[in-house]
């Protein structure tokens, strides 16, 4: 075999190896069936893999907050949340993530209407332990991609009911929420902001899935 053929063969081998390194990487959510249906549903299920912590599965209630759920599902399917972090964590309150800037200042390209009573929308989901809700600024219609999951009832922290758009709850993985809380809350400031990104828990991947207990 001449030198040219040897080099060509070597390049092909290297390309194959690199392709495998990229393509053969196992998804942490590989065991879940992806929901690719375009049909509107009352409930959606999202699996969220968090590096070094585990998998959280949330049930999204479209009956209570259709705009919020549709926006969240769209972002998940676009891969928006993959690689983002939980940048704000407060023990006895919540873990907050979904900010591409990882500091509480960022979001997606589109803001959505706030589906809660103080904004004229009848949403009765209480902010209890395990509930997922949208973060926002003082503007009622400023939510976009940032969300939070309550690691406790908010009754003793400040009532969020009727003021924030709750849109579902954790059906599996509250132990993961607790793990994120205990591992990262200590790095937060007085408002729970974790300034050093390498201390934030990373959302490896999110997928809309078909869940066994689907209603």
Q: What does this molecule look like?
A:
The protein has 215 residues and is of the alpha+beta class. It has a single domain (28-209), classed as Cyclophilin, CATH 2.40.100.10. The chain has three helices and eight strands, in the order αββαβββββαβ. The longest helix is centred in the first third of the chain and has 21 residues, at 3-23. The protein is globular and about 75 Å long. The N and C termini lie far apart (63 Å). The mean pLDDT is 90.
Describe the structure concisely for a colleague:
The protein is an alpha+beta fold and 215 residues long. It contains 3 helices and 8 strands.
pLDDT < 50 stretches: none
* Structural class label: alpha+beta
Q: Report the CATH superfamily.
A: Cyclophilin-like
Give the amount of beta strand, in percent. 15-25%
Strand order across the largest sheet: 1-2-7-5-6-4-3-8
Q: What would you report as the Rg, rounded to the nearest angstrom?
A: 20 Å
CATH architecture: Beta Barrel
Q: Can you tell me the overall shape?
A: globular
Largest sheet, described in full? 8 strands, antiparallel, barrel
Secondary-structure element order, as H and E?
Answer: HEEHEEEEEHE
Task: Compute the average pLDDT.
Answer: 90
**Separate helix tally:** 3
First CA to last CA: what distance? 63 Å
Give a count of the beta strands, DSSP E runs of length 2 or more.
8
What CATH calls the topology is Cyclophilin
The residue fraction in helices comes out at 10-25%
Q: What top-tier CATH class fits best?
A: Mainly Beta
Question: What number of domains?
Answer: 1
